[in-house]
Amino acid sequence: MLAALFVEARKLNRSLAALLAIAAPSLIAVFVFFNMIRGKAPAPWDMWMGSASAIWAFFMLPMSVTALTALVAHMEHGPKSWDNLRALPLPRWKLYAAKAVCVLAVVAAMSALTLLMVWGAVTLAAVLKPELTPTGPFDLAAYARTMGLMFLAGLLMIALQLWTALRFASFVPGLVLGIGGTFFAVVATSAKEGVFLPWQMPVNMLASEAWRMNTALGLGCGLGLVALVAMVVHLSRREVL
Fold first, then answer.
1. pTM of the model
2. Which residues of the chain have a pLDDT value below 50?
3. CA pair distance 239, 241, nearest whole angstrom
């Protein structure tokens, strides 16, 4: 398993995954920076970090997962290298499990980078305009916990996107699923039924109602783990992708 993980990490290192992992958090940081720099009065740290977390969960996370899973799958679909991989003296399930672990690791790293870059953006804006220095405490533990819960709640979405991307040689089904899921998550934000939509589960970690948060976290994390196992079992038994 370690060998499969090492190979997948090397593949990601030579792909555009690193660029994507940096670009998505950077866009949020740039938005927060310019939004803060045009302000007239200081705002609490909670507002800046909370708004950044909301943008991440609401839009950037689903779209980043869509792009990342398409990229990971295309590394094999593009050069048609699945036959070579599946002919290796290695249990097939390890190939797919390694890809899933790498995708999850990149998404987790992007979550951490979002916190770090937004903190840097707010700090830089405060240096340029000291009168806008954020008020209140900078509760890093609370912000990290929120991002961690968003990651766990997003496991089902990640599993569905990766499953679709690996199952179909064309990148179109995965893109359609990601764009469609994000669209319905946006338009169904205030609907009670929206909590059951995988693409909306991460943003429900910011919900004021405890039932929404607990439901989204339980379904997103629990069903996400089940979906990841089912994906590995299903794909490893297929003879042709």
1. 0.90
2. 241
3. 7
Contacts of 159 (CB under 8 A, 6+ apart): 100, 224, 227, 228, 231
| Of residues 117, 115, 97, the one with CA closest to residue 53 | 115
In three state form, how does the secondary structure of the chain look? CHHHHHHHHHHHHCCCHHHHHHHHHHHHHHHHHHHHHCCCCCCEHHHHHHHHHHHHHHHHHHHHHHHHHHHHHHHHHCCCCHHHHHCCCCCHHHHHHHHHHHHHHHHHHHHHHHHHHHHHHHHHHHHHCHHHCCECCCCHHHHHHHHHHHHHHCHHHHHHHHHHHHHCCCCHHHHHHHHHHHHHHHHCCCCHHHHHCHHHCHHHHHCCCHHHHHHHHHHHHHHHHHHHHHHHHHHHHCCCC
Q: How far is the C-alpha of 204 from the C-alpha of 216, rounded, in Å? A: 6
Calculate ∠ Cα 113-117-123, nearest 5°. 150
pLDDT for the residue 96: 86
At position 240, the amino acid (one-letter code) is V
Task: Please write the tens of the pLDDT for every residue from 142-187.
Answer: 999 999 999 999 999 999 999 999 988 888 899 999 999 988 888 8
Question: Phi and psi at residue 138, in whole multiples of 5°?
Answer: -95, 95
Could you give the maximum distance between any two Cα atoms of the chain, in Å? 64
Give the per-residue pLDDT at 188. Answer: 75
- pLDDT tens digit sequence for 203-226: 999 988 888 899 999 999 999 999
